[in-house]
Amino acid sequence: MTLVEPALFTPQSLDHPDRPLGLFRLLRTLVHNPLETWPQPLFTERLFWQRFAGRPLLFVMDPALVDEMLVAKAAVFPKAPIIRRTIGPAVGNESIFTAEGTQWRWQRRAAAPPFRHSTILGFVPAFHAAAARTVADLGSRGGETVDVAELMMATTFDVIVETMLSGAASFDTKRFGQEISHYFDTVGWIAALSILRAPAWLPYPGKRRAREGNLFLKREMARVIAERRARPAATPDLLDFLIAAADPETGRAMTDAELADNLLTFVVAGHETTALALTWALWLVGNAPEVEARLLDEVTRVVGDGPVEAGHIDGLVYAKQVVQEAMRLYPPAPLIPRIASEDVTLGGEAIAAGTPVYVPVYAVHRHAQIWQRPDAFDPDRFAPESARALHRGAYLPFGAGPRICIGAAFAMAEAVAILATLVRAMRFVPLAGHQPLPTIRLTLRPDGGMPMRVEPR
Ligand code: HEM
């Protein structure tokens, strides 16, 4: 008897080179799309050494070793300098995302309250309301082709301002998004120049524009903080918790500059990634009619016609699987860069102090030794019984260990609520022949956006 494999939608994947690119092609490709520099062995080997301009870098793909590195040996593998070099100009070098040790720990504790389970459930009406506004906006446009990536950015931006800043701040959402994009677009240059060990002051295309954008974003955050100091929120939100926090070692509070850096971190990290998870999920669902039918059936059964409420989230099991599978194929944060802070061994490899050690999440998520039909879209991989069999180092859209995403549970509840609301009201139809390719711009974006036709059901 021959087993017939179910027909699964399999998006076009990128062509990865058989072996590492030579320096000239490497630099040129990095600027264009760093993902295209990733060689094939990242998708088949446990570990892979690569030399960049003479210096070694270790990629770790084996789930047990990924786990050992990010969890058990987290103290030995702090964040790599490339993180500060790429993200530091936007959010400072001592904010929750970039700081290390005690300077990081108290900020993480200070930011924790809005991410407690019960608080997140209280945000579900805001998730639903943002999605419902998007549906109303789409309904008024009558079946046009829209850029779903842009649409999801606006929806999740709405959510982050509503939930973390009590809806108090009025932002120019479009300009905000444009400035973030200007900045992210230069990241390939920053990566290329740091491989060449070029000093950070060196000019490159788009640098001035990106700097202006950063200044705009920081000014916006400073404005929000000043407004909040003048008029406290009715119930404390993330900003209030950050303002009230004190460093246990020195007793000092955050300066306004530190508050602005952290606020910007939360606003950027807290909407862009979730928007991308939703963008890729909607496109995948639009290409997989059976998945779409099951999803719709679940939403109708669990939620009915009314708004998505806190009590529905746990019942939207298949919707969660769809989001998880979309983030497996297209992890919004595709790379976790670390550095060995001392001589250490991992999986029998001796790693010298100062060696960059990276987890290429996108490659782990499509690894031939971990997944069957790795490039196929199959939300059933995350059905509860199958998910239990997965090694925790095999699937890490939110990272792992002490630096795991603080917003993971928030993002999952948000993505599920928004996906359910959108899919129930609208059909997202892919454009014939359009194959969006993933490109690394810090996050994993669809190159050229995600144009889709959106029709009311
Ligand atoms: C689907 C959505 C999201 C994805 C895929 C994602 C992914 C990640 C990853 C991989 C990290 C760890 C980076 C590393 O270890 O180098 C991280 C950290 C972080 N994320 Fe998220 N994130 C998402 C949503 C959010 C949300 C909604 C928020 C806040 C509202 C948030 C705020 C943060 C912060 C502050 C950190 C730094 C935590 C620390 O270092 O202590 N993220 N995120």
SSE inventory with pairings:
Elements: H1 23-32, E1 47-52, E2 55-60, H2 63-72, H3 81-91, H4 101-111, H5 117-122, H6 124-141, E3 145-147, H7 148-164, H8 173-184, H9 187-195, H10 207-230, H11 238-244, H12 256-269, H13 272-286, H14 289-302, H15 317-329, E4 336-339, E5 344-346, E6 349-351, E7 356-359, H16 361-364, H17 384-388, H18 408-425, E8 426-430, E9 438-441, E10 443-446, E11 451-456
Parallel strand pairs: 2-7
Antiparallel strand pairs: 1-2, 3-11, 4-7, 5-6, 8-11, 9-10
Please describe the biggest sheet, giving its number of strands, its sense, and whether it closes into a barrel.
Answer: 4 strands, mixed
Bound molecules: protoporphyrin IX containing FE
Secondary-structure-based class equals alpha+beta
Count of domain modules? 1
Indicate the overall shape.
globular
**CATH architecture label name:** Orthogonal Bundle
What is the alpha-carbon Rg in Å?
22 Å
- Overall average pLDDT: 93
Number of helices: 18
Segments where pLDDT lies below 50 for 5+ residues?
none
> How many E strands?
11
